[in-house]
Write a structure and sequence with these properties.
about 170 residues, mainly alpha, 6 helices, about 75% helix, about 0% strand
Length: about 170
């Protein structure tokens, strides 16, 4: 019993030379703001009509996926026997085509939305590794997750550059 109270006293007593807790938060906040400013200073704003390469690649990927889905639908491919999958596919097609058009125009909302789709794809492919029963399934999961992850990473910087163009800094 005496040992516990002694530990409690030692743990609760702050060293005399330690800064107050508010000062630590302020210091972290200042360091974070400095890192943000440094990262922003390293970015080059997009010129009028310029589109980062990662955004162009994302637009092509979105369009290719939309065309592939339509081709599979026209060819009669069905994922499951049973109910109609056409309504869900039509919604997904409209989403992909809107993303492809927005990405091609370099719109921030399109990059953000496509990154959300990529994020869901990465999570789904990664979780599918848990139930992969053979090397082909593992290869398929990794073949989806790794390129999607790389594109996701590249789109983050492109989003910042697009946002700089759409919302110039007020100085």
């Amino acid at each position: 019993m005496a040992q516990r109270s002694r530990k409690r006293r030692v743990a609760s007593a702050a060293p005399a030379d330690a800064p107050p807790a508010g000062a630590l938060r302020q210091t972290r906040s200042e360091r974070s703001a400095a890192r943000d400013a440094e990262a922003r200073a390293g970015l080059e704003p997009l010129l009028a009509g310029e589109r980062p390469p990662a955004v162009t690649i994302a637009a092509i990927v979105a369009l290719a996926l939309a065309v592939a889905n339509l081709a599979l639908l026209a060819g009669g491919y069905r994922i499951k026997a049973g109910g109609s999958q056409t309504p869900g596919l039509v919604v997904f097609e409209v989403l992909l085509l809107a993303a492809a058009a927005g990405l091609w125009k370099g719109r921030y909302w399109a990059v953000l939305g496509f990154e959300a789709l990529l994020g869901l794809t990465i999570v789904y492919a990664s979780l599918s590794l848990v139930v992969a029963s053979n090397l082909a399934a593992v290869g398929l999961c990794l073949g989806i997750a790794i390129p999607a992850g790389l594109l996701f990473y590249k789109l983050i910087r492109a989003m910042a550059r697009i946002q700089m163009r759409e919302h110039p800094r007020q100085t």
